[in-house]
Amino acid sequence: MAAGRPVVLAAGLLLAAAQLLQLAGSFSISRHAMDNITITIKRGPSVPPLQDCKICRGKICQPEFRITAADGNGNYNFTCATPEKYLVMEIQKNIDCMSGPCPFGDVNLQPSGLPRLNRTFIWDVKASRKGGLELKFSTPWLRQIGPTDTCPDLITYSISSCIDTTRVNIGTFCRNGTMSRVKVQGGVVMALYLPWNSTLTMSGFNIANRSSIKRLCVIESTFKGEMSATLMSPNYPLGFPEDELMTWQFVVPSNLRASVFFRNYSLSNCERKEQRVEYYLPGLVSSPEVFQLSERQPANIPGNFNLSLQGCDHDDQNPGILSLLLQIVVQYPQNEENVTYVVDLRKERDLSITIQPKSPHRGRLLQFEPACLICKEPRTCEHNVTLTSGNLYTISFLCYDLEHLRITAEKTIVCSHFRYCQKRIHALIVPEAISTLPVRLDKFIWNLLASEEISVEIMSPSLKLQQHIQEQRCNRSYSYSIVSTAKEKELNLGIFCPGGSIEKIQMRDNITITLKTFGRGFINESRNQDLKMSFVPFIKEECIFTVTPDPKATVYLQTPNWLEGLPPYFSVSWNITVPNKQVARLAFSKERMGMVCETGRAYVNIKEQKPEAEETVRREDELLPQPMHMYHHFWVNISNCNPVNKNQLSLQFWLTFVQQKTNLPVIVAVVVGGAGALLIIGIIICCTKKNRKKKKLNPNVGIYNANVNTQMPGKRGLFRKKRQDNDSHVYAVIDDAMVYGDLLMKSNGSVTPEVDVYRPFDGPVSDTPPTPPPISFKKTSNVSIPEEFPFCSVSDSETYTFAHHKPEETRGNGETCVNSTGVVDTSLLDSKEQEGLAE
């Protein structure tokens, strides 16, 4: 029993070795000596970390094995279970078409029974330089890719040609394309790369015939339906060989149309000859049409045509590179009725119109979509076209559905000197040349530019503008985006649409207005556009809105730059009109500004536009005003500080209107008060006339004598009542020439005017916006209290008049008291002298 164990163990080891050998992939190569095939198995260009994986023939194991025809048939195996991770195989076959007949027909993948490794089959076909070889591909033909691109199934073809000792790369290709044949002058090297798990058993091409083509190569591209193909010149992007010629032959069904587009190209520096492209188009028999690479290429071509690329002799010092990447689009004919549109831009200035396809859907990127082409001439078509002002164009479209196209336009209006543009009003409307095209306008941009001393004003007199915010969304077919730009900073005023209450917007800096359309409704609504602009003198405010609300609607307004907040030290004002016989209710959407200032102060100022109106002012650290009722037109000003930690100032407020109620008792009181005032005025007139007659007989004039003693002698306590309680300060006669305002101005300031630190809203209240108060603003004003005047010893029967005095002749407050003899008793003294008299 014990003796049998070594035998069983040895048998197990042999079985395991056999299984391992089978797992390692043993294979045998069987071929004929005349095949002229060389097989090389070697380590791949990029492999995982080093592992002991070798190929063995008998007892000889090596990391690289080269098997030639002299080696004959043999059995091989690998020392690892997954050799496809580490080793690759090249199978090269040499075909001689110079000394004998070429093996025309299909090219097979030989030899058979090769291990499952990444394989590259190489066919090196030798041919005369004066002769050409034709390689014909079976369906599904080939598709050219860039030198660094990969094929989806990793099956890749590479075609090269030899010019003397220099190899030229005709191109790299995948399966599933339009390239059906390749003709190469002289010899050709054809390579086919197959991944280790590929089951392909045929090469997919054959050697068709041998004939001279007198050029580097001819590539045939066959189209059977609507599709596009991308092609590249040989050696792309390294450069087309010097002074060479190549041709693309395009086979297009007669019921389809082809268009050529040069997507990328570069030019060499020519010393002799000229680099160009030549077309043999349908209907041309003898001479080709010649185009430069920089020109628009032909489009809407019916049937088959040829395109050739001609190089030149390079400058040896600076040769440059000639390369070309082109796209061929084949589709069913569009616009066969030859409909054209005239776009007249001869009277326009600084206007450009671009027609281009809209962005494609992501899900359709891999599918062919018929191209929408815009043509200025029957065969000068492009995917996108730009039309500029001052020109006349005739446009046609090659497009199955014009919904795939969009128009973008841009116009610039400039004012350098105010005297040349101050009275001009520009209508910001879409030109008729755009509205006549069958393509939808996507956006129209107006750039309004002026020098630093000129501001911009936007007006919408009839429709007015509505600010698009959460509470009042725009539901029109178009809207305006208004952005202020100056000194590399942008301020987004917001989105606006017609049908609101904003009649005018004034901006201190340049403005960009972008009209954005939504749907086909814009065609009808655009006829009533009334947006206008003009250049106005420089304004100190960054932004001023003029609001004329509809009393039946609620108006919502918010500060510019809503998402980012007002910039530091930015000030914006609203000039709001209150409709006749209406009361406006003003309310803010939140209780506080919600920000903290680092330097300066943020303010909200509200003031009615009427004389001596009270002003409501709130700082950033105070509560915003409660809902307020405004009976007159009023200003709302919001000014920012330099906030802390990038805190933003964004405020919203709204307006509602109610009918102003009239109170009957108030009307009666006003009428009675008016009648009483008329009665008093009548009495004063009568008294004045009587005093005038008396004054003409014996007018008395007060004379001021500085040498007279002003201390009043007499009995102390003669007047028991205070001055404000008796009538001693009431004078019988007031000279008509006396003007109290004049007297106060010429005096030394006996009556102190009301003074405060902050006085905003200076000037006409209807035109001047409020300005933010200084940092030292005080909420309450100090009003000076008039002091008591010193009394004078007078007689009730005496008549007095006032005479004008020059400033240097007047003391105190400028008032003079005279006794019956004409001697000065006292004057209005300064406060210290009055205190002395009182004692």
Structure overview:
With 839 residues, the protein is mostly beta strands. The chain folds into 5 domains: 21-221, Jelly Rolls, CATH 2.60.120.290; 223-333, Jelly Rolls (Sandwich); 405-659, Jelly Rolls, CATH 2.60.120; 663-695; 699-751 and 786-839, no CATH class. It is 10% helix and 39% strand. The protein is built from 7 helices and 56 strands. The strands form 11 sheets. The protein has a 9-stranded mixed β-sheet, with no helix packed on it. A 9-stranded mixed β-sheet has the order 35-43-37-41-44-46-52-49-50, with no helix packed on it. β22 (276-280) and β23 form a beta hairpin. The protein is elongated.
User: Could you give the count of β-strands?
Assistant: 56
How do the strands line up in the largest sheet?
A: 8-16-10-14-17-19-25-22-23
Shape category: elongated
Domain tally: 5
Amino- and carboxy-terminal Cα gap? 150 Å
Architecture of the largest domain, according to CATH? Sandwich
Secondary-structure-based class equals mainly beta
The percentage of residues in β strands lies in 35-45%
The CATH class of the largest domain, by name, is: Mainly Beta
Number of helices: 7
- Give helix % range: under 10%
Unreliably modeled segments: 1-24, 361-366, 664-672, 693-765, 775-839
What descriptive keywords fit this protein?
839 residues; mainly beta; Jelly Rolls; 5 domains; 9-stranded mixed sheet; 7 helices; 56 strands; 10% helix; 39% strand; elongated; disordered N terminus; disordered C terminus
